[in-house]
Structures are given as C-alpha cells and as structure tokens.
Design brief:
Elements: H1 3-29, E1 62-65, E2 72-73, E3 75-81, E4 84-86, E5 98-101, E6 107-111, E7 117-126, E8 136-141, E9 151-153, E10 159-169, E11 174-184
Parallel strand pairs: 5-11
Antiparallel strand pairs: 1-2, 1-6, 3-4, 3-11, 6-9, 7-8, 7-10, 10-11
C-alpha cells in the first residue's frame, strides 16, 4: 500500500477507534433505565386484599324523619354484617335523641348510604322502661322481595316511647337495629321531626 493510501486510511481508522471507545465508555457509565430489574423500586401499589375488609366503625347510618324537618340519625344497637358485628341491649330513652311527632304523623326510616332494606320490624316500649321488657311490635315485614329504599309506619299512641327499628340489608349480608326516643302528641301535636336531645 502506498504512503498516500496510508495517509487516507489512518484518520478513518482513528475516527472509528475513537467512536468505539466512546460507545464502550458510555455503556459503562450510563445510568440504568428506570425499568431495569437491578434498580427497580418496590411496586407503587399494594396487591389487592384477598377478601373484602371487615366493616369499620359499625353499621351504616339510619335516619328517622317525620314532617318537613331534617331527618334524625338513629343510635345503632346490635348489628351484624359479613360475619362481623356486635350485640347491644335495649337502649334507654336517656341515651337517645328525642323526636317529637303528632299522632297522625307518618314515621319514615331509611339507611343513610342507600343500601336496600329487606326484612324489617319496628318495636316500641314506654320511655319509663329502660330495659325494653315491655317492648311490643308495631310494624314490619318478613320478606326481602322486593327491596325497599325506606320503610314507613304509623307512630304508637300518645306518650313517650323508645322506638327501635331493625333493618335487614337487602343483600342478605346482615342487619342492624337503630333507636330513637319518641314523643307522640295529639293530632295537632308537634309533628315536626325536630330532635330535642339528649
């Protein structure tokens, strides 16, 4: 090969060698991609639980309304859902908010989270009976078909009562009892549904 040929090929060979060295050096010092297995961080999300979590904090809320005023939340008693729950005794009037209604009012109860209602029953006892020993049935149904959005019934006679309404969830996964103190006046009584305590 002539001297002139060596001059022509020398720079090309040097350029190729420099390029190859830069490529090798870059491969050795480059930061691995975020998805590289060697440096991949822990997963961003935890795996889904194998089963639904147990209810936290008790049963869903339930509301009693009668008349145009704001519905009054009931005090939960015994409840069960998906095998978890709690037993509670009859709640005395002193532990409950009092709702004043007229004797011709209509009492309406619904679950606050939109759950359907299947079977249900309403019981009352005089407010002077703290244990519910004299409680009696006033309304209800045993069937769960079709589900109800709310239940409605007439109040007991005039007087001071404890009302307990037990609602069976329409999905068949449990039930819960809710209580209110109920003051029933005459036909021209309050009937506003306004809570008065405790």
């Amino acid at each position: 090969m002539s001297e002139t040929g060596r001059r022509r090929t020398g720079p090309a060979a040097a350029l190729m060698a420099a390029s190859l060295a830069a490529a090798v050096l870059g491969a050795c010092t480059a930061t691995p991609s975020a998805g590289a297995p060697a440096t991949d961080p822990a997963p961003a999300t935890d795996p889904a639980p194998a089963t639904d979590p147990a209810p936290v904090g008790g049963p869903p809320s339930a509301w009693l309304e009668s008349g145009p005023e704001m519905p009054v939340p009931g005090v939960p008693g015994s409840w069960a859902r998906d095998g978890v729950g709690s037993d509670a005794p009859w709640l005395p009037a002193s532990a409950l908010p009092t709702v004043e209604v007229g004797s011709e009012s209509r009492l309406v109860v619904e679950l606050g989270d939109g759950l359907g209602i299947g079977s249900w029953r309403a019981d009352v006892a005089p407010a002077s009976d703290p244990t519910g020993a004299s409680a009696r049935w006033v309304a209800g149904r045993d069937t769960t078909d079709p589900p109800l959005r709310r239940v409605a019934f007439d109040p007991p006679g005039a007087g001071s009562w404890v009302l307990r309404v037990t609602l069976g969830f329409a999905d068949g996964r449990g039930d819960a009892a809710y209580s209110w103190a109920l003051g029933v006046g005459g036909p021209d009584g309050p009937g506003s549904g306004r809570p008065r305590g405790p």
